[in-house]
Inverse folding.
């Protein structure tokens, strides 16, 4: 059986959620559009088109946003969330304007090796395989080292201390190294876009621009506000320096995490243990479709905010009409993990890389 890093983590968190929603389980998806999921996916797709195909970032985001809204127009639940979607996607445009300005100089050093790729690779010592999606492979022209890039949208900042031990991030580096050993992949770049819109600076009564540190914005947006008022940066140097420091904390993070062979070797042992431990249970559950209904839940605070099937889980616990609940709230389309079409494996990785290698800056 092929599993993804996310699926392994999901199984660890709650076996019932895994059984109901994973690609290897029932694959249930809610009929009501999920804003967090759709927004994150749209940002990912825009970044992919920008870095891999060289398309202007805002243009790519606009195209994908319009495609999504056209698709959701026929969804009977979309009216309930339309206003929230509209505001969030408008905020997304503001975020990307500042993102592009913030990383304009650094991105010039990125040599894009290959675009988004879906991989499948056997897990040594098991009968299972790991599948996943690498967002980007880049070479940093300053050092010549190659990195896996993973785009993330997040409400909260990422803790840089845990990136080296994150299951998903280690999985991508673990997979990339044997697929393309000649690249000597150094580690991972976690490219975080915070879901925070930079605020407009306030104008003082004397026509100058406020240097209030309670107003979080970016240096670019602040300088644009100065220009709009015919002001220069003289007298604002210290505040602009402070804003630069805050931008890397409040709005964007780019965490470069080298991963040693020892780290990745220990990850492989963890992966084998987790998959082998879960493997027998997976097999038993999947032998009979009815087995999925016998999987117990893990009751935790995550149930309140991290589960799209809590209402179904509750119905199962109360022995209510679960079938009716599924028919009325869940989509007829089943989740496949988006990995139903694998791009690369150990047999074709070199050929695929040669065909898709880009060798240029976005």
């Amino acid at each position: 059986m092929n599993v993804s890093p996310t699926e392994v983590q999901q199984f660890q968190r709650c076996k019932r959620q895994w059984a109901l929603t994973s690609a290897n389980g029932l694959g249930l998806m809610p009929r009501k559009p999920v804003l967090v999921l759709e927004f994150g996916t749209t940002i990912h797709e825009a970044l992919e088109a920008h870095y891999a195909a060289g398309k202007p970032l805002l243009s790519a985001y606009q195209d994908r946003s319009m495609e999504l809204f056209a698709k959701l127009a026929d969804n009977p639940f979309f009216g309930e969330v339309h206003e929230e979607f509209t505001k969030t996607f408008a905020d997304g445009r503001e975020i990307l304007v500042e993102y592009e300005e913030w990383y304009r100089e650094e991105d010039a050093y990125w040599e894009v090796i290959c675009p988004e790729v879906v991989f499948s690779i056997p897990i040594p010592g098991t009968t299972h395989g790991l599948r996943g999606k690498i967002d980007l492979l880049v070479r940093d022209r300053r050092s010549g080292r190659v990195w896996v890039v993973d785009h993330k949208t997040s409400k909260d900042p990422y803790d840089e201390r845990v990136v080296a031990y994150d299951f998903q991030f280690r999985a991508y580096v673990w997979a990339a190294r044997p697929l393309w050993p000649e690249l000597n992949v150094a580690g991972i770049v976690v490219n975080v876009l915070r879901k925070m819109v930079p605020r407009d600076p306030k104008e003082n009564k004397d026509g100058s621009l406020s240097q209030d540190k309670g107003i979080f914005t970016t240096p670019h947006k602040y300088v644009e506000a100065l220009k709009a008022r015919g002001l220069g940066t003289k007298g604002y140097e210290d505040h602009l320096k402070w804003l630069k420091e805050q931008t890397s904390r409040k709005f964007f993070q780019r965490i470069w995490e080298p991963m040693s062979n020892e780290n990745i070797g220990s990850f492989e042992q963890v992966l084998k243990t987790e998959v082998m431990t879960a493997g027998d249970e997976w097999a038993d559950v999947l032998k009979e479709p009815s087995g999925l209904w016998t999987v117990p839940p893990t009751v935790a605070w995550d149930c309140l905010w991290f589960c799209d099937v809590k209402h179904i889980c509750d119905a199962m616990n109360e022995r209510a009409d679960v079938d009716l609940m599924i028919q009325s709230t869940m989509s007829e389309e089943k989740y496949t993990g988006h990995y139903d079409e694998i791009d690369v494996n150990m047999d074709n990785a070199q050929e695929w890389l040669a065909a898709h290698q880009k060798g240029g800056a976005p």
Observations:
- The beta strands are 2-3, 110-114, 117-122, 129-134, 136-140, 146-154, 187-194, 252-258.
- The chain is about 50% helix and 15% strand.
- The mean pLDDT is 90.
